[in-house]
Design a protein that fits this description.
The protein has 342 residues and is an alpha/beta fold. It is built from 13 helices and ten strands. The mean pLDDT is 95.
Protein backbone atom coordinates (compact mmCIF):
# COMPACT_ATOMS: atom_id res chain seq x y z
CA UNK A 1 0.00 0.00 0.00
CA UNK A 2 1.23 3.48 -0.83
CA UNK A 3 1.73 5.84 2.11
CA UNK A 4 2.15 9.59 1.82
CA UNK A 5 2.38 12.63 4.10
CA UNK A 6 0.62 15.99 4.30
CA UNK A 7 2.83 18.43 6.19
CA UNK A 8 1.41 21.50 7.93
CA UNK A 9 4.73 23.02 8.97
CA UNK A 10 3.79 22.35 12.61
CA UNK A 11 5.45 24.83 14.96
CA UNK A 12 6.84 22.98 17.97
CA UNK A 13 6.33 24.59 21.40
CA UNK A 14 9.08 27.11 22.12
CA UNK A 15 10.23 27.32 18.49
CA UNK A 16 9.56 29.61 15.52
CA UNK A 17 8.03 29.34 12.08
CA UNK A 18 11.56 29.49 10.67
CA UNK A 19 12.35 26.30 12.60
CA UNK A 20 9.11 24.71 11.40
CA UNK A 21 9.91 25.40 7.74
CA UNK A 22 13.32 23.80 8.17
CA UNK A 23 11.54 20.80 9.73
CA UNK A 24 9.25 20.62 6.68
CA UNK A 25 12.20 20.34 4.31
CA UNK A 26 13.76 17.72 6.57
CA UNK A 27 10.41 15.88 6.49
CA UNK A 28 10.58 15.79 2.68
CA UNK A 29 14.09 14.34 2.77
CA UNK A 30 13.11 11.81 5.42
CA UNK A 31 9.92 10.80 3.60
CA UNK A 32 11.86 10.12 0.41
CA UNK A 33 14.47 8.01 2.23
CA UNK A 34 11.78 6.05 4.08
CA UNK A 35 9.87 5.21 0.90
CA UNK A 36 6.80 7.43 1.19
CA UNK A 37 5.14 8.03 -2.17
CA UNK A 38 4.47 11.77 -1.91
CA UNK A 39 4.54 14.70 0.49
CA UNK A 40 2.06 17.55 0.23
CA UNK A 41 2.19 20.92 1.98
CA UNK A 42 -0.84 22.69 3.39
CA UNK A 43 -2.16 26.22 2.86
CA UNK A 44 -3.14 27.77 6.19
CA UNK A 45 -3.12 31.56 6.54
CA UNK A 46 -2.46 33.54 9.74
CA UNK A 47 -2.03 30.29 11.62
CA UNK A 48 0.54 30.32 14.43
CA UNK A 49 0.45 26.53 14.72
CA UNK A 50 1.46 25.86 11.11
CA UNK A 51 4.11 27.62 9.02
CA UNK A 52 2.98 26.22 5.67
CA UNK A 53 1.08 29.25 4.36
CA UNK A 54 1.94 28.93 0.66
CA UNK A 55 2.49 25.32 -0.44
CA UNK A 56 4.07 26.26 -3.78
CA UNK A 57 7.05 27.79 -1.93
CA UNK A 58 7.70 24.62 0.05
CA UNK A 59 7.20 22.48 -3.06
CA UNK A 60 9.88 24.47 -4.87
CA UNK A 61 12.26 24.30 -1.90
CA UNK A 62 11.63 20.58 -1.38
CA UNK A 63 12.30 19.86 -5.06
CA UNK A 64 15.86 21.08 -4.53
CA UNK A 65 16.57 18.67 -1.65
CA UNK A 66 14.83 15.54 -3.04
CA UNK A 67 15.00 13.62 -6.30
CA UNK A 68 12.23 11.00 -6.39
CA UNK A 69 9.31 11.69 -4.06
CA UNK A 70 6.22 13.40 -5.48
CA UNK A 71 5.58 16.93 -4.16
CA UNK A 72 2.26 18.74 -4.01
CA UNK A 73 -0.28 21.01 -2.39
CA UNK A 74 -2.75 19.87 0.20
CA UNK A 75 -4.42 22.06 -0.96
CA UNK A 76 -4.29 25.29 -2.95
CA UNK A 77 -7.40 27.16 -1.78
CA UNK A 78 -8.93 27.91 -5.16
CA UNK A 79 -11.52 30.38 -3.87
CA UNK A 80 -8.71 32.91 -3.32
CA UNK A 81 -6.92 32.71 -6.69
CA UNK A 82 -7.38 32.87 -10.44
CA UNK A 83 -7.29 29.51 -12.27
CA UNK A 84 -4.66 30.91 -14.65
CA UNK A 85 -2.34 31.83 -11.78
CA UNK A 86 -2.64 28.36 -10.24
CA UNK A 87 -2.23 26.49 -13.54
CA UNK A 88 0.82 28.47 -14.64
CA UNK A 89 2.43 28.24 -11.22
CA UNK A 90 2.14 24.45 -11.08
CA UNK A 91 3.21 24.08 -14.70
CA UNK A 92 6.38 25.96 -13.72
CA UNK A 93 6.87 23.68 -10.73
CA UNK A 94 6.49 20.73 -13.09
CA UNK A 95 9.30 22.20 -15.20
CA UNK A 96 11.46 22.41 -12.08
CA UNK A 97 10.73 18.84 -10.89
CA UNK A 98 9.54 16.89 -13.97
CA UNK A 99 7.15 14.06 -13.26
CA UNK A 100 6.94 14.80 -9.53
CA UNK A 101 4.35 17.57 -9.06
CA UNK A 102 0.80 17.21 -7.74
CA UNK A 103 -1.75 20.02 -7.87
CA UNK A 104 -4.16 19.42 -5.02
CA UNK A 105 -7.12 21.81 -5.22
CA UNK A 106 -9.56 22.66 -2.45
CA UNK A 107 -11.42 25.54 -0.88
CA UNK A 108 -11.83 26.97 2.60
CA UNK A 109 -12.84 30.12 4.39
CA UNK A 110 -10.90 31.62 7.25
CA UNK A 111 -13.62 34.10 8.17
CA UNK A 112 -14.63 37.46 6.71
CA UNK A 113 -11.49 39.39 7.71
CA UNK A 114 -8.93 37.05 6.18
CA UNK A 115 -11.13 36.30 3.18
CA UNK A 116 -11.29 40.04 2.50
CA UNK A 117 -7.52 40.38 2.93
CA UNK A 118 -6.98 37.74 0.25
CA UNK A 119 -9.27 39.52 -2.23
CA UNK A 120 -7.91 42.03 -4.72
CA UNK A 121 -11.24 43.85 -5.06
CA UNK A 122 -12.54 44.42 -1.55
CA UNK A 123 -15.45 46.60 -2.61
CA UNK A 124 -16.88 43.87 -4.82
CA UNK A 125 -15.23 40.58 -3.81
CA UNK A 126 -15.48 37.72 -6.27
CA UNK A 127 -18.08 35.04 -5.65
CA UNK A 128 -16.04 31.98 -6.49
CA UNK A 129 -17.67 29.17 -8.47
CA UNK A 130 -15.61 26.21 -7.27
CA UNK A 131 -16.55 23.85 -10.07
CA UNK A 132 -15.87 26.48 -12.72
CA UNK A 133 -12.51 27.33 -11.15
CA UNK A 134 -11.40 23.69 -11.16
CA UNK A 135 -12.59 23.19 -14.74
CA UNK A 136 -10.82 26.34 -15.97
CA UNK A 137 -7.59 25.30 -14.25
CA UNK A 138 -7.79 21.92 -15.97
CA UNK A 139 -8.50 23.62 -19.30
CA UNK A 140 -5.33 25.69 -18.97
CA UNK A 141 -3.24 22.63 -18.10
CA UNK A 142 -4.71 20.34 -20.77
CA UNK A 143 -5.31 23.02 -23.45
CA UNK A 144 -8.96 22.02 -23.59
CA UNK A 145 -10.65 25.38 -24.07
CA UNK A 146 -13.13 25.42 -27.00
CA UNK A 147 -11.54 26.64 -30.23
CA UNK A 148 -13.49 29.91 -30.14
CA UNK A 149 -12.58 30.67 -26.49
CA UNK A 150 -10.22 33.67 -26.15
CA UNK A 151 -7.92 31.68 -23.85
CA UNK A 152 -7.48 28.93 -26.44
CA UNK A 153 -4.90 31.01 -28.32
CA UNK A 154 -2.59 31.27 -25.29
CA UNK A 155 -1.21 27.82 -24.30
CA UNK A 156 0.90 27.50 -21.15
CA UNK A 157 4.65 26.82 -21.36
CA UNK A 158 4.56 24.90 -24.64
CA UNK A 159 8.12 23.58 -24.21
CA UNK A 160 7.12 21.76 -21.00
CA UNK A 161 5.18 18.66 -22.08
CA UNK A 162 4.53 17.22 -18.62
CA UNK A 163 1.38 18.11 -16.69
CA UNK A 164 1.04 17.93 -12.87
CA UNK A 165 -1.24 15.27 -11.46
CA UNK A 166 -4.52 16.96 -10.55
CA UNK A 167 -6.42 16.18 -7.38
CA UNK A 168 -9.55 17.52 -5.73
CA UNK A 169 -9.46 17.61 -1.93
CA UNK A 170 -12.63 17.56 0.14
CA UNK A 171 -14.49 16.27 3.16
CA UNK A 172 -18.06 16.01 1.88
CA UNK A 173 -20.08 14.12 -0.78
CA UNK A 174 -20.03 17.22 -3.00
CA UNK A 175 -16.32 16.81 -3.56
CA UNK A 176 -16.66 13.16 -4.55
CA UNK A 177 -19.31 14.09 -7.14
CA UNK A 178 -17.15 16.84 -8.63
CA UNK A 179 -13.94 14.78 -8.76
CA UNK A 180 -15.72 11.78 -10.28
CA UNK A 181 -17.51 13.94 -12.84
CA UNK A 182 -14.31 15.66 -13.93
CA UNK A 183 -12.35 12.42 -13.96
CA UNK A 184 -9.51 13.59 -11.70
CA UNK A 185 -7.96 12.25 -8.50
CA UNK A 186 -9.82 12.62 -5.20
CA UNK A 187 -8.49 12.95 -1.65
CA UNK A 188 -10.84 12.78 1.34
CA UNK A 189 -9.94 14.41 4.66
CA UNK A 190 -10.88 11.62 7.03
CA UNK A 191 -9.58 13.58 10.02
CA UNK A 192 -12.28 16.20 9.37
CA UNK A 193 -15.23 13.94 8.59
CA UNK A 194 -14.38 10.33 9.51
CA UNK A 195 -17.96 9.10 9.20
CA UNK A 196 -18.24 10.38 5.64
CA UNK A 197 -14.94 9.05 4.34
CA UNK A 198 -15.79 5.51 3.24
CA UNK A 199 -19.14 6.39 1.56
CA UNK A 200 -17.60 9.35 -0.31
CA UNK A 201 -14.60 7.38 -1.55
CA UNK A 202 -16.76 4.44 -2.64
CA UNK A 203 -19.12 6.81 -4.46
CA UNK A 204 -16.21 8.44 -6.22
CA UNK A 205 -14.94 5.09 -7.49
CA UNK A 206 -18.39 3.96 -8.60
CA UNK A 207 -19.22 7.16 -10.53
CA UNK A 208 -15.79 8.09 -11.92
CA UNK A 209 -15.98 9.16 -15.58
CA UNK A 210 -12.80 9.80 -17.63
CA UNK A 211 -12.78 13.26 -19.23
CA UNK A 212 -9.31 13.38 -20.75
CA UNK A 213 -7.65 15.01 -17.74
CA UNK A 214 -4.94 12.41 -17.25
CA UNK A 215 -6.88 9.52 -15.75
CA UNK A 216 -8.69 6.56 -17.28
CA UNK A 217 -9.60 5.04 -13.90
CA UNK A 218 -10.23 6.46 -10.41
CA UNK A 219 -7.35 7.38 -8.11
CA UNK A 220 -8.32 7.92 -4.46
CA UNK A 221 -6.43 8.94 -1.32
CA UNK A 222 -7.67 8.72 2.27
CA UNK A 223 -6.07 11.32 4.57
CA UNK A 224 -5.88 10.30 8.24
CA UNK A 225 -4.39 11.84 11.39
CA UNK A 226 -1.87 9.32 12.75
CA UNK A 227 0.44 9.05 15.78
CA UNK A 228 2.68 5.99 16.05
CA UNK A 229 4.75 5.13 19.11
CA UNK A 230 7.17 2.35 19.93
CA UNK A 231 4.37 0.72 21.94
CA UNK A 232 0.61 1.09 22.16
CA UNK A 233 1.00 3.24 25.26
CA UNK A 234 3.56 5.46 23.55
CA UNK A 235 1.27 6.02 20.59
CA UNK A 236 -1.69 6.84 22.81
CA UNK A 237 0.48 9.34 24.66
CA UNK A 238 1.57 11.05 21.42
CA UNK A 239 -2.07 11.28 20.34
CA UNK A 240 -2.50 13.84 23.10
CA UNK A 241 -1.01 16.46 20.77
CA UNK A 242 -3.67 16.28 18.01
CA UNK A 243 -6.45 15.65 20.52
CA UNK A 244 -5.33 18.62 22.59
CA UNK A 245 -5.00 20.82 19.50
CA UNK A 246 -8.55 20.13 18.38
CA UNK A 247 -9.80 20.60 21.93
CA UNK A 248 -8.09 24.00 22.03
CA UNK A 249 -9.63 24.92 18.68
CA UNK A 250 -13.06 24.06 20.01
CA UNK A 251 -12.61 26.51 22.87
CA UNK A 252 -10.80 29.28 20.96
CA UNK A 253 -13.64 30.76 18.90
CA UNK A 254 -12.41 33.72 16.87
CA UNK A 255 -8.88 33.29 18.23
CA UNK A 256 -8.44 29.89 16.56
CA UNK A 257 -5.53 31.19 14.48
CA UNK A 258 -3.45 31.68 17.62
CA UNK A 259 -3.90 28.12 18.89
CA UNK A 260 -0.68 26.10 19.08
CA UNK A 261 -0.21 22.32 19.00
CA UNK A 262 0.37 21.27 22.63
CA UNK A 263 2.80 18.71 23.94
CA UNK A 264 1.08 15.51 25.14
CA UNK A 265 1.69 16.55 28.75
CA UNK A 266 0.18 20.01 28.18
CA UNK A 267 -2.81 18.41 26.50
CA UNK A 268 -3.32 15.95 29.35
CA UNK A 269 -3.53 18.85 31.81
CA UNK A 270 -6.12 20.70 29.69
CA UNK A 271 -8.45 18.07 28.28
CA UNK A 272 -11.63 16.70 29.78
CA UNK A 273 -11.88 12.93 30.39
CA UNK A 274 -14.11 12.61 27.30
CA UNK A 275 -11.54 14.39 25.14
CA UNK A 276 -8.70 12.31 26.55
CA UNK A 277 -10.56 9.05 26.02
CA UNK A 278 -11.73 9.75 22.45
CA UNK A 279 -11.23 6.48 20.53
CA UNK A 280 -8.20 6.06 18.27
CA UNK A 281 -9.35 2.83 16.61
CA UNK A 282 -12.51 1.85 14.75
CA UNK A 283 -15.03 1.31 17.55
CA UNK A 284 -18.52 -0.14 17.00
CA UNK A 285 -18.06 0.50 13.29
CA UNK A 286 -17.29 4.20 13.80
CA UNK A 287 -14.09 5.63 12.38
CA UNK A 288 -11.98 7.78 14.74
CA UNK A 289 -10.69 11.30 14.06
CA UNK A 290 -7.27 10.21 15.26
CA UNK A 291 -5.53 6.88 14.69
CA UNK A 292 -2.87 6.05 17.26
CA UNK A 293 -1.00 3.26 19.01
CA UNK A 294 1.95 1.03 18.32
CA UNK A 295 2.93 0.19 14.73
CA UNK A 296 0.81 -2.97 14.55
CA UNK A 297 -2.22 -1.19 16.08
CA UNK A 298 -2.07 1.61 13.53
CA UNK A 299 -1.51 -0.74 10.62
CA UNK A 300 -4.56 -2.82 11.56
CA UNK A 301 -6.78 0.28 11.69
CA UNK A 302 -5.47 1.73 8.43
CA UNK A 303 -5.88 -1.58 6.61
CA UNK A 304 -9.48 -1.80 7.78
CA UNK A 305 -10.07 1.77 6.57
CA UNK A 306 -8.60 0.90 3.17
CA UNK A 307 -10.79 -2.21 2.94
CA UNK A 308 -13.95 -0.27 3.80
CA UNK A 309 -13.26 2.76 1.60
CA UNK A 310 -11.47 1.31 -1.42
CA UNK A 311 -8.80 4.02 -1.25
CA UNK A 312 -5.60 3.41 -3.21
CA UNK A 313 -3.36 5.28 -0.80
CA UNK A 314 -3.23 6.65 2.75
CA UNK A 315 -1.93 10.15 3.40
CA UNK A 316 -0.71 10.79 6.94
CA UNK A 317 -1.31 14.02 8.82
CA UNK A 318 0.64 13.98 12.09
CA UNK A 319 0.02 16.85 14.49
CA UNK A 320 2.69 15.67 16.91
CA UNK A 321 4.27 18.57 18.77
CA UNK A 322 7.89 17.37 18.97
CA UNK A 323 9.61 17.14 15.54
CA UNK A 324 11.73 14.23 16.76
CA UNK A 325 8.61 12.30 17.80
CA UNK A 326 7.01 13.20 14.45
CA UNK A 327 10.00 11.81 12.54
CA UNK A 328 10.04 8.65 14.66
CA UNK A 329 6.31 8.11 14.10
CA UNK A 330 6.84 8.25 10.33
CA UNK A 331 9.83 5.89 10.55
CA UNK A 332 7.89 3.33 12.56
CA UNK A 333 4.93 3.44 10.17
CA UNK A 334 7.16 3.08 7.10
CA UNK A 335 8.93 0.11 8.70
CA UNK A 336 5.66 -1.55 9.68
CA UNK A 337 4.36 -1.35 6.11
CA UNK A 338 7.69 -2.41 4.64
CA UNK A 339 8.14 0.69 2.52
CA UNK A 340 11.28 0.69 0.44
CA UNK A 341 13.04 3.43 -1.46
CA UNK A 342 12.65 2.89 -5.24
Amino acid sequence: MKLSIVDLGTVAPGTTEKDALADSLEAARQAETAGYHRIWFAEHHLSRSGASHHPELLIAAASAVTSRIRLGSGAVLMNHYSPFKVAEMFKQLEAMAPGRIDLGMGRATAGPVLDAALQQNRQHPAQADHQQQILETLAWLYESFPADHPFAEHPLMTTVPDIPQTWLLGSSPNGSNLAAGLGIGYTFAGFINPAGAAPALRHYRETFTPQGFGLESPRAILAVNVAVGETTADGLHLAGSPKGFYARLGRAGRKAGSVMVPTPDEAAAEMSPAETDEPVTITDGRWPRFVAGGPADVRATLEQMIAESGADEVMIQDLIADPADRRRSRELLAREFGLATP
